[in-house]
Structure formats: structure tokens, C-alpha cells
Amino acid sequence: MMTTRLCALLIAALLAGCASTGNPKDPLEPLNRKVFAFNDALDTYALQPVAKGYVAATPLPVRSGIGNFFSNLDDVWTGINNLLQGKVGRAGSDVGRLLINSTVGIFGLFDVASELGLEKHDEDLGQTLGVWGVGPGPYLVLPLLGSTTLRDTANFASTYVDPVPRIERVATRNTLRAVKLVDTRAQLLNAGRALDEAAIDKYAFMRDFYLKRRQSQIFDGRPPREEDDEAALPVPFQQTPQRAADLFMAQPVETAALQTDE
């Protein structure tokens, strides 16, 4: 797919000919910081204003339904990765969530499954590879796509199970991607303000938070203790909804996949 090819080219460009720093987790820090500054400016002058307008114009029940709809689609990928990790019970729960919310919940607009006690999980291929023992590799900040690691770029494979890219009508496909992007960014407005207030070095804060969060996800919230784990994260980041945090900290921004032709 075009998105996958684009990501591969971006990763190759980042890795090729870059001088490393003394930080083993972030050997490409000089280049990463430049890309981070570009993404931050794009967010400040484009995504944030649009997200604020979306919140002001869209009633909370409508925003909740939109968020639930996209979260329901994510359960497909989550279930596959739970199964790959040997978490059969969780995978069965994910399938149950998908079936219930897609039917009783009216195409996922209502999260009926959670009310019935089926817990929402979050698993992806990067976590699966981590469970299998694959190391994270260098930390990367990709243009438009945000924070990741070399291992976590495997998450671009999710496009092969996401039904949205398979919608034939380009306008409909792009509209859904744009709505998901704006809705997800809107959920992060409070977290963004907390970051601006708490972080002296936004880049370092985001990098360290991302790496710790991914480690915690791989070990289901019980990662091996490290010496630098003493630093507590601000409460707004501890409580940020999982799906929303994926855009802010880790997952590809959907604008990179918008298409103008076939």
C-alpha cells in the first residue's frame, strides 16, 4: 500500500547517514529533534485549532459515538495481536466486544461491551514483537507520523486489517481518516496543555514517556524496574485515554495516508 511504502522511505531516510549521539536509546537525536519541531509546529498551527473547533461545534454524545466507532474497529487488530501473544482469553474477549458493539452497539457507536464487563484491551504488532523478545531498536520521530521505534514501525501492518483503506470511494475514505484524526486530537487537548506546562524539554519528555509507556504495555503494566522509573508522570498523562494517547505518543497520524487518487 502507498502508506506502507511511504513509511519505509521515511524510515530509510532517517537511518541513512545519521551521526549517532551518546544516548543508546536515541542515537538519532539531532535529526529526531528537527522532525519533532516540524511536527510540533504542524500540531500548534493546524491540528490544535481544528480540534478546538471540533469540540466547540460537536456535542459530547456525538463525539463519544465517533470515538467508540473507531475504537471498535481497533478491536480487530487488538484481537489478532492478543492471539499472537498467546492470550487466547483476551482474544476471545476482543472478538466478543467486536460482535456486540458492531450489532447491539449499532456499528460501534455505543460501547455496550464495556457495560457488559468485556474489558477494552490495547495490543499491536510492536507489542507482540516485544513479547517475542525483539528489542525496540533506535527511537524515531517520523514526519507527520510521530514517535515510534524501529520495532514499532511494524505497526504499519495494521493497514492490512483496517477496513477503512479498503473503501473504494476516495472521498469517503479520506473523510473517515480526517474525522478520526481530529476526534483523537480533540481528546488530547487537556494532555497537550499539561505537557506545555510540565515539560522544560518537550522532546525529551515525550521520548522518555513513549519508551516507558511501550515497555509497560509489553509487560501488561508490570515492566522490570529501571533506575530512572522514580520520575512520576503528570496525572493528566497517566489518565489519558489509551486510544487517544496512541496518536499523541506513538501511532501514525492518519493524514499521511490521505489520497487524492487511486
Properties at a glance:
single chain, 262 residues, mainly alpha, 58% helix, 3% strand
Describe what you observe in this structure.
The protein is 58% helix and 3% strand. The protein has helices spanning 2-15, 29-57, 60-84, 88-103, 112-115, 125-131, 170-186, 189-198, 202-218, 235-238, 242-250, and strands at residues 139-142, 146-149. α2 (29-57) packs across α7 (170-186), α3 (60-84) packs antiparallel against α4 and α3 packs across α7. The N and C termini lie close together (11 Å). It has a domain at 26-57 and 138-156 and 178-262. The relative contact order is 0.14. With 262 residues, the protein is mostly helical.
Summary?
This protein has 262 residues and is mostly helical.
SSE class: mainly alpha
Note the beta-strand portion.
under 5%
H/E element order: HHHHHHEEHHHHH
Helix share, percent: 55-70%
What is the residue-averaged pLDDT? 83
Number of helices: 11
Number of separate strands: 2
How far is the first residue's CA from the last residue's CA?
11 Å
